[in-house]
Amino acid sequence: MIVIVTGMPGSGKSRIVEEFEKRGFPSVSLGDIVREETVKRGLELTKENVAKVSIRLRQELGQNAVAKLAVGKVRVLLEKSPLVVIDGVRSLDEVGTFRGAFPEEKIIIVAVHTPPRLRFERLKARGRHDDPQTWEDFEERDWKELRFGIGGVIAMADHMLINDGSKEEYEKKVKTLVEKIIRGLNRGGA
Predict the structure, then answer these.
(1) Per UniProt, where does ATP bind?
(2) Which of 2, 17, 12, 38 is nearest to 112 (CA)?
(3) What is the pTM of this model?
(4) pLDDT tens for each residue of 141-188
(5) Is there a binding annotation on residue 96?
(6) Cys bridge to 12: 22, 100, 163, 169, which one at CB 3.0-4.6 A?
(7) CATH of 2-187, one of 3.90.470.20, 3.30.160.150, 3.40.50.300, 3.90.226.10
(8) Is position 8 annotated in a ligand binding site?
(9) Under a CB-based contact definition with an 8 Å cutoff, are residues 109 and 157 in contact?
(10) 11 annotated to a ligand binding site
(11) Domain residue spans in the chain?
(12) Is 7 among the annotated ligand-binding positions?
């Protein structure tokens, strides 16, 4: 089984990934693949360089470029684990790449929605090198994500978590959903 986790930056995707990892299931981050590719190209890990490489990869290899680069990693992990989580899928082309590469696997899409103002505050607090520090940067990043096609992936989600309350409320939602998916794995569904 493959669980694709999607959502806008700062929505809470990583918390879902962490919950699966706590339970022994591995993950592949498409964002990490772009960051690795940025370094491979001899560029410093800056917000601008990562964004440029992300766009350049799609120009060179198609809209599903990052997914293509991830397929090998996912394949290796599926040999060792019955469930692999893929974090950061941003287009239906990427979903299609995974469906095509793994036709025998059940693929579940989990989307997280968090209101923009709340995401902005969380991203500012997170402090990762590529996180926006101004509302204008935040909006620009959101539009970039939407141009990649993330809205289509969110619309096609099998499960949607709304992350607009307390951390404790979201934790409960995440644990409940992860348990449901794992139960489905054990029964052949979800």
Answers:
(1) 7-14
(2) 12
(3) 0.91
(4) 899 889 889 999 999 999 999 999 999 999 999 999 999 999 988 776
(5) no
(6) 163
(7) 3.40.50.300
(8) yes
(9) yes
(10) yes
(11) 2-187
(12) yes
Please state, in angstroms and rounded to a whole number, the distance separating the CA atoms of residues 2 and 71.
12
Tokens of 13: 């995707």
Quote the crossing angle between the two packed helices 30-40 and 47-61, to the nearest 10°.
100
21 pLDDT tier (thresholds 50, 70, 90):
very high
pLDDT the model gives residue 119: 95
Per the annotation, does 10 bind a ligand? yes
Distance CA 38, CA 57 (A): 10
Coil vs helix vs strand at 172: helix
Which helix (H) or strand (E) covers residue 24, if one does? none
User: Does the annotation flag 13 for ligand binding?
Assistant: yes
Helix (H) or strand (E) holding 110: strand 107-113
> Residue 128: CA atoms inside 13 Å, Cβ hemisphere, count?
14
Whether 100 and 130 have beta carbons less than 8 Å apart is answered as no
pLDDT tens, 93-134?
999 999 999 999 999 999 999 999 999 998 988 877 778 889
